[in-house]
Specification:
The complex is a heterotetramer of chains A (263), B (170), C (81) and D (524). With 170 residues, chain B is an all-alpha fold. Chain B contains 6 helices and no strands. Classes of the chains: A mainly alpha (263), B mainly alpha (170), C mainly alpha (81), D mainly alpha (524).
Chain lengths: 263, 170, 81, 524
């Protein structure tokens, strides 16, 4: 009960504070607010520069992708590291490496007639669905430059396709496709691709993640195209990590860290 | 009395029109956030706490997305057709002409008010992914707690800690 | 400037948020949280944040609901509050 | 090459973490060398940056992705805040060095991480440990308000994993609370940054300060004030400042001891650093102390924090928990010092110096306590009985740390208290001065009690079941209870650094005071 009162006090206090701050916000949807239009007399705001110069600088139509993977690519790299750290943390917390008496707590699903029927229907449907989902995921990754999408979304969808396989056909089947050693390595390689592309431009003699430096390597007509291609490489790295870790989190949570049995 | 009520209603309507309406999104983000915070503190079930935490985080994301909205803008993806068909280049007043970018040839200078602000979107992509990573770790810890205590209710866990009634590893 | 569409979704959001915190069955709570995520994704798509909406649809309504459900299956389904 | 040092400092542990995850599962013996090499590279980079800042007297700037402010790329002039800026200046150079030293020493100490469920998880431990280091370096070095949030989350997620992987069920519960509190703290910070972004249109710290300084409308607006409160609240949760400290003692005392040895000295200190960075760089000291004059209230909160921490520490009979409550008191020192609005900024100087000093002192004590726990099974104060004879070499390190905590002259603990008290006197905040002195007294009582137990023993030998203990003690004494060199060397290095930092206090303080805003009271 005491917690309820504490919660009430905290909620009322924080809410009042936030509303107090909201009261002198610019109107919702105003294009002239400092965030959108910049401070008066200070020239173009950062976001206006993003909108106007993304096309000349990187040849990428989707500004979100350009800002995400290039201008603020350092943020995105650490975002991928956050995902990787979450995966490692879950392994550290939950993974049971030594089975105590050789048997795990969960009985493998029953083989009754009814269960088999369900299995056939669900299994067949998912077998048809999963390739389509995976193809869509790859499309989302590849088309991130031109439409909404990119490494995270594609990675999550790709990871979800493996999760679906685990749900419909049992975790063992999914783990045959993507075993533990594989997905941990895949997650690490994903971040490594990202940071490696950044490091490559350092070797060329420019700053970290300066994709323009890769122009001679990629043989593009100008630096903008080099940025565009390097962003695609970076997105692929993100996809690797996100796919692997989403699946890893699922298998750990569903099997209490035993990576057997599952839901 | 009737006058009083009328004045009161008038005041409320005035308040809603001038204070709440232009900021409606911001107000509702505060409401959602407070629901999340309430769930976070007052709920005793650990999973409920995590749902509250997620609501709290999505409310913050709603706030960020709201601040990047421009009323007459489209999504932040470059629109070839629209840009090609524009008759005149838009020149911002504060901008010197020599840093105008490549306005020659293929497309003209882009009107920044035509597109939504991409920066908050980028930030929130990061925040969403951070949110799901935190949720995953928290759920793993919750399962680990369940393994040791056999319950996910906070008061029962505290009770068991007091009595020492839980699985102790050496 | 706020359109009615926004207001409807915002009201629904508040309703789903309260229900998912109040319902005693954790499986229902997870599902309703998935609905909440989907609604908020609609709202963001409407506001022009398509990338954010896409991510939220995949992450919030998809994967985190699965994570919650996996945990609920492995622990207890009933909650005291 | 020199100009690449800031980013290498952050990247090196990241690559280490990735290689550990890749190769560590096959052979655990690969983890340790990878960790050491990557952390040594980081430390060298941190020292190199400090050297550079010291010799040139200028801050080192680094723009990730080459999006430097004012640079012209393909005919486009890049504005400030377009990309992400890293900057090593007088404020964070030494903090970087301390982080580098602490993580390196702990990783040597943790050559065999103790207290986790099984040693099969060594590679997860090292991977998380290196990511924690990466996050700490990153959040110290970055100049971008949102990037700071991401790096706070990197280090937080790693620390959640490190705390929850311990074998104690109470540790898992503490980790859960820590996750909730940590996420709420980071979310408040994120929200504050959002309010600032709405009002200033940029995420670069210098950019935000320029807008606040130039435009009185923004500086006086409610949103900026709320943003400031939110950011401070978020950081106070993260650093366990007085009313919000509930998560800390359990989280740090029930986690694996090598994880505790790195989390306890660094996590709270880096949060204090972030708070000071926010005050100096984002809002500007003038705004903080003039437009938003809450100095009195916050110094009082700090005084309560110091008293509460000390009193709770006195009440504990578990060694680690006692140290955890002392951390709560020390956070009170730093927050109070930072908020003493004296004209010459001696309080703030003292607080920054105390970040360095306290990181070393806490590291020293936690290393010693972890060694006690590992070698002699010491958990409670009474277990220390006669430890002086059994582990004299470890005890030496512990004594140095304890004397620094009390504030005995040649150690750095004395000088940090000296500057803090000077700030307190100059600003006329006598309550803060008194709290500092009382806290030193309490620390003296606490540690001399420990010395007494460890030297003379707490109870007469005919105590309950003491016979077994003695026999056990005798056999172990023959084998040598003394810790191995991998534990002793980090401990002694820390102890030497405590004294070294104390002796060098003049130069260090002179260096710190070159931070913009600390000299002459105004931000430039």
């Amino acid at each position: 009960m005491a917690m309820k009162w504490l919660a009430l006090v905290a909620v009322v206090f924080t809410g009042a504070l936030l509303i107090y701050g909201v009261s002198d916000f610019p109107d919702w949807g105003s294009a002239d607010s400092p965030a959108n239009g910049g401070i008066e007399g200070a020239g173009r705001s950062v976001s206006q520069t993003f909108i106007q110069e993304t096309k000349p600088l990187t040849h990428v139509p989707n500004m979100v992708t350009a800002v995400l993977a290039d201008y603020r690519g350092y943020d995105t790299m650490f975002e991928t590291v956050v995902v990787f750290a979450a995966g490692m943390a879950i392994f550290a917390v939950l993974r049971v490496l030594k089975t105590v008496d050789g048997q795990h707590s969960r009985v493998i699903r029953d083989r009754s007639v009814d269960g088999d029927h369900q299995r056939i229907i669900v299994g067949t449907t998912c077998k048809i669905l999963i390739p389509v989902i995976q193809m869509f995921a790859l499309y989302v990754v590849a088309h991130g430059h031109h439409s909404p999408g990119g490494g995270f979304q594609g990675g999550v969808i790709l990871g979800a396709s493996f999760i679906l396989l685990g749900l419909s056909d049992g975790m063992e089947t999914a783990m045959e496709r993507l075993s533990e050693g594989k997905f941990v390595a895949m997650a690490a390689i994903g971040v490594l691709i990202y940071a490696g592309i950044g490091l490559l431009s350092q070797f060329v003699g420019r700053d970290f993640l300066d994709y323009g430096a890769l122009q001679p390597l990629l043989g593009t007509p100008d630096e903008g195209w080099a940025r565009s291609h390097a962003m695609l490489g970076v997105e692929v790295g993100v996809t690797f990590t996100v796919t692997a870790i989403m699946f890893a989190i699922y298998v750990n949570l569903a099997s209490k860290g035993e990576l057997k049995g599952g839901l | 009395m009737v006058d009083f009520i009328e004045i009161f209603v008038e005041r409320v309507v005035h308040f809603i029109e001038n204070v709440v309406q232009p900021h409606f999104n911001y107000w509702s983000y505060v409401v959602l956030m407070m629901i999340g915070l309430w769930g976070l503190i007052a709920k005793r079930n650990l999973i409920k706490k995590l749902i509250g935490l997620s609501i709290f985080q999505t409310a913050i994301i709603l706030f960020y997305v709201s601040l990047g909205v421009k009323a007459d803008a489209t999504i932040p993806v470059f629109d070839y057709e629209a840009e090609k068909s524009k008759s005149a280049a838009v020149v911002l007043p504060a901008e010197p002409s020599e840093m105008g970018g490549k306005s020659d040839g293929k497309y003209k200078k882009i009107d920044p008010d035509h597109y939504a602000n991409p920066l908050p979107h980028v930030l929130m992509l990061t925040a969403i992914v951070v949110g799901v990573a935190t949720l995953g770790v928290a759920l793993a810890v919750a399962q680990s707690i369940f393994k040791d205590f056999g319950t996910l209710e906070e008061h029962e866990i505290l009770e068991k800690i007091k009595t020492g009634d839980y699985v102790k590893h050496d | 400037m706020v359109e009615n569409f926004n207001i409807i979704i915002l009201v629904l959001l508040v309703v789903t948020a309260v229900i998912s915190l109040q319902v005693k069955d954790l499986l229902s709570a997870s599902m309703i949280f998935g609905i909440y995520s989907f609604l908020i994704c609609l709202l963001w798509a409407e506001m022009g944040a398509v990338d954010v909406a896409f991510t939220e649809a995949a992450v919030g309504a998809g994967v985190s609901a699965v994570f919650l459900i996996a945990t609920v299956f492995n622990t207890k389904r009933k909650s005291s509050d | 090459m020199i100009d690449q040092l800031p980013v290498i400092c952050v990247l090196s542990p990241l690559f280490g973490a990735l290689f550990v995850a890749l190769f560590g599962s096959r052979s655990h013996s690969a983890c340790f060398p990878i960790a050491i090499v990557s952390l040594v590279i980081s430390l060298i980079c941190a020292i190199g940056c400090t050297q550079q800042v010291f010799t040139t007297g200028q801050a080192m700037d680094y723009f990730v992705g080459g999006w430097g402010a004012g640079k012209v790329v393909e005919g486009v002039e890049i504005p400030l805040g377009f990309g992400i800026q890293l900057r090593v200046d007088h404020l964070n150079a030494l903090v970087l060095c301390i982080i580098g030293i602490a993580v390196l020493l702990v990783s040597i100490f943790a050559i065999r991480p103790q207290g986790e469920k099984d040693t099969e998880k060594t590679h997860y431990f090292y991977s998380l440990f290196l990511m924690l280091a990466c996050g700490l370096f990153g959040q110290t070095i970055t100049r971008d308000a949102f990037n700071l949030f991401v790096l706070v989350e990197v280090s937080s997620l790693a620390s959640y994993g490190l705390i929850a992987m311990g074998s104690s069920p109470r540790g898992t519960v503490a980790a859960f609370n820590y996750i909730i509190m940590g996420t709420v703290g980071a979310s408040f910070y994120l929200l504050g940054v959002g309010y600032l972004y709405l009002k200033t249109g940029t995420l670069n710290m210098d950019g935000i300060r320029q807008v606040i300084e130039l435009s009185p409308d923004v500086a006086d607006s409610r949103s900026v004030m709320v943003a400031f409160i939110l950011i401070m609240l978020g950081m106070w949760i993260k650093m366990a400042f007085f009313p919000l400290y509930g998560w800390l003692p359990n989280a740090y005392s029930y986690c694996p001891s090598s994880a505790g040895a790195v989390l306890a000295p660094l996590m709270t200190k880096v949060s204090v650093y972030v708070m000071i960075r926010m005050m100096i760089t984002v809002f500007g000291l003038e705004w903080v102390f003039e437009s938003f004059d809450w100095s009195a209230l916050i110094v009082w909160l700090a005084v309560i924090a110091i008293f509460a921490g000390s009193v709770f520490a006195l009440a504990q009979n578990e060694l680690k928990k006692m140290l955890c409550y002392l951390i709560v008191a020390e956070v009170g020192y730093m927050v109070g010092g930072a908020w003493l609005a004296d004209a010459d900024r001696w309080g703030l100087t003292g607080a920054i110096y105390h970040i360095l000093a306290d990181a070393l002192m806490t590291l020293c004590l936690f290393l010693a306590v972890a060694t006690f726990a590992k070698r002699a099974g010491v958990i409670k104060l009474d277990d220390l009985d006669g430890l002086f004879k059994k582990m004299p070499l470890t005890m030496v390190g512990f004594i140095v740390g304890a004397l620094a905590m009390i504030g005995v002259p040649p150690t750095c603990g004395f000088f940090s208290k000296f500057y803090l008290i000077r700030g307190g006197i100059e600003s006329g905040r006598w309550e803060f001065v008194i709290a500092l002195l009382v806290s030193s007294l309490v620390n003296a009582i606490l540690f001399f009690r420990i010395f007494e137990i460890a030297y003379f023993g707490s109870s007469p030998p005919e105590g309950h079941g003491h016979h077994d203990d003695e026999e056990h003690g005798e056999t172990t004494a023959r084998r040598g209870l003394e810790a191995p060199l991998t534990s002793l060397v980090p401990l002694w290095i820390t102890a030497a650094l405590i004294i070294g930092l104390g002796l060098m206090n003049g130069q260090v303080v002179e260096f710190i005071r070159k931070t913009v805003g600390l000299l002459g009271g105004g931000a430039a």
